[in-house]
Design brief:
The complex is a heterodimer of chains A (314) and B (273).
Chain A lengths: L1 H28 L6 H21 L2 E2 L9 E2 L3 H8 L1 H32 L6 H13 L2 H11 L6 H8 L16 H26 L3 H9 L4 H30 L2 H6 L11 H10 L3 H29 L4
Helix pairs in contact in A: 3-13, 4-8, 4-10, 5-8, 8-10, 10-13, 12-13
Chain B lengths: L1 H31 L4 H6 L10 H12 L1 H33 L2 H12 L7 H10 L4 H26 L3 H9 L4 H12 L1 H16 L5 H4 L8 H11 L4 H35 L2
Helix pairs in contact in B: 3-13, 4-5, 4-7, 4-10, 4-12, 7-10, 8-9, 10-13, 12-13
The chains are: A mainly alpha (314), B mainly alpha (273).
């Protein structure tokens, strides 16, 4: 019995030793020392806050005085779900994410298909469509606050001039309309970005696929349906996820245009967290923030899995 | 063939119509920033009867704190981008190459930040606890918020660099730091350019994080000067428009000059994933 184990060890040891040596060598060559500054920074300013946020969301606290904190159980979460403002914010975040995603993907895809060919102005058009993506959101918000101005704004002036004065609206001041107007601004800003993602995806598709299809007599639509779209799925997928996450996280655009108003008509998670922060209701803010994180993870991950499963290998 | 030409013409028309939806607002802002107060309040597309270019921009620069905003934005952006490049490339290198259980788990945690939004209120608590000044806090948080994506970008690229390069450098007597900074980092140049562009745009245009941390005219970045200027001067549209023009001018100029790099740069992470 004993002898056996010794021989076994003897047989295993040399290779084990070699691996160990290789491993320790590798660990020295790629030691964590080089990565530590970055890891520490990420730990302090991202990981610890995430944990602290979870703790704070169960705590009643006013101001930064941690000694005033007392355990509140689910109180913060109950507040988030029972206050009408909060429910409004949750619905609005979803409306915003869904509408902007549908339009950004639709417009982005149409523009990408249209510009995925050589025409006289292809490059100029691409440059123009991408331009809103580099302008800061506050400036975009102000530009549209002016365009959507109820009495002087360009949009209403245009509608009146073409005889559609019945359609003039106070775009950002009408509580029923404001959230859709804000969606329109987001779509204006980011459709070109989606277009570029899809365009670069299309350019990786080999020309021979199309040539083969043409020989078989495929029309434009068939080519799109059976070649472009399936091979575009990875890029489409990423653009979709980015758009959903961006839509649920939205804060800056709404803060720059309506600040959640009129009333609570355009309240979203982002403005809600900002307001509870301003009012010193930190626990509630953290609870809202946690719910948002869960919602994002809950939507983004399954969507990604689902579409990733449908991808075609090139 | 004739049918094809008609399609191209109609397609071009539709595309230019869409392009005008972007160009008209831009034109409207620029032309109205040249008008006097009562004309600018009408916000139409007509040319100004009285050109007031110098006065508007002079008033704006004097009152809007735009120069200070420009300096603040530049300082914060340069520091953040520099740190992000160095911290994230080293992190990605170690985490990608080690291939131990722990390093994989750490990498997963870092990448998870791509999905999970930054918990801003507890972050504020941490900064408060560490007694950081507003500016320092903003810089650290902006770095942390953009780290996941930058590490993700670098990791993908480092995978494509053969490990034999490390080994031969190691045998030639290079230490870890030397190996990374003298051999590997230069090879990362294409992805470094992308990372610089993405982070430059993200930090320069940031509003959602800086609004929490930067709260006095002294430390406002450009987007914050625009936001607060509008809060105080919402009836002086000529100045608001001038403000919008000046605050977007630097980044728009950079975009038009370097679009060949910026467009693929800003979207590259999303294309392949």
């Amino acid at each position: 019995m004993r002898r056996q184990s010794v021989t076994q060890r003897h047989r295993v040891m040399p290779t084990g030793n070699k691996e160990e040596i290789m491993n320790s060598l590798k660990c020295r060559r790629y030691s964590y020392t080089l990565a530590i500054p970055g890891l520490v920074l990420y730990l302090i300013f991202f990981v610890i806050p995430a944990g602290l946020g979870l703790v704070l969301s169960f705590v009643r606290i006013l101001g930064f005085d941690l000694s005033s904190a007392r355990f509140g159980g689910l109180e913060n979460y109950i507040d988030v779900f029972t206050q009408p403002n909060m429910r409004r914010a949750i619905t609005n975040s979803f409306i915003f994410a869904v509408i902007t995603t549908v339009f950004k993907m639709g417009i982005g895809l149409s523009l990408a298909v249209a510009l995925n060919r050589r025409m006289a102005f292809t490059n100029a058009l691409r440059t123009i469509f991408f331009l809103p993506a580099v302008i800061n959101t506050v400036a975009v918000g102000l530009i549209f606050s002016s365009l959507m101005h109820p009495s002087n704004g360009l949009i209403n002036a245009f509608l009146e001039n073409v005889g559609l004065s019945a359609l003039t609206k106070s775009w950002l001041a009408d509580p029923h309309l404001a959230i859709f107007s804000v969606c329109a601004i987001e779509i204006w800003k980011w459709s070109g970005f989606t277009m570029v993602i899809l365009l670069s995806g299309m350019q990786t598709i080999g020309k021979d696929f199309y040539e083969a299809a043409e020989i078989d007599g495929a029309g434009e639509f068939t080519k799109f349906r059976y070649i472009t779209f399936p091979l575009l799925l990875p890029a489409f997928n990423n653009a979709l996820i980015l758009s959903i996450i961006g839509g649920l996280k939205v804060f800056d655009l709404i803060q720059a245009t309506t600040q959640g108003g009129p009333g609570s008509a355009t309240e979203v998670f982002g403005t809600l967290i900002y307001k509870s922060f301003g009012a010193g209701r930190f626990g509630e803010g953290c609870a809202a923030s946690m719910i948002l994180a869960l919602v994002i993870a809950g939507i983004a991950l399954p969507t990604y899995r689902y579409i990733a499963g449908k991808e075609v290998e090139m | 063939m004739k049918k094809n030409r008609w399609i191209t013409i109609i397609l071009n028309l539709v595309l230019w119509l869409c392009a005008f939806l972007i160009l008209i607002p831009v034109y409207m802002v620029i032309i109205n920033s040249f008008k006097n107060q009562s004309e600018a309040a009408k916000m139409n597309m007509m040319l100004p009867t009285q050109w007031q270019i110098f006065k508007n921009y002079y008033d704006m620069i004097k009152e809007g704190g735009i120069l200070r905003g420009f300096v603040n934005s530049t300082v914060i952006t340069v520091i953040c981008v520099l740190f992000l490049i160095i911290l994230c490339s080293t992190m990605a290198f170690v985490l990608e190459r080690r291939k131990t259980v722990l390093s994989r788990m750490v990498n997963m945690t870092v990448i998870f930040g791509l999905v999970l939004p930054l918990q801003i209120i507890p972050t504020y608590f941490v900064c408060n606890f560490l007694h950081l000044t507003h500016e320092t806090a903003a810089v650290f948080v902006l770095i942390a918020a953009n780290m996941s994506f930058t590490v993700f970008l670098y990791t993908g690229f480092i995978k494509s660099i053969p490990q034999e390069i490390d080994e031969s450098a190691w045998i030639d007597g290079a230490g870890q730091t030397e190996l990374f900074f003298r051999i590997i980092f230069p090879l990362l140049q294409p992805v470094t350019i992308t990372a610089v562009i993405i982070n430059f745009m993200a930090v320069w245009n940031d509003f959602g994080i800086s609004i929490y941390f930067l709260n006095s005219a002294k430390n406002y970045t450009l987007p914050l000067t625009v936001y607060n200027f509008f809060g105080n001067h919402s009836s002086d549209w000529q100045l608001v428009f001038a403000n919008v023009v000046l605050s977007t001018l630097p980044v728009a100029a950079v975009y038009l000059l370097l679009q060949k790099y910026i467009i693929p740069g800003m979207t590259s992470g999303a294309v392949k994933g």
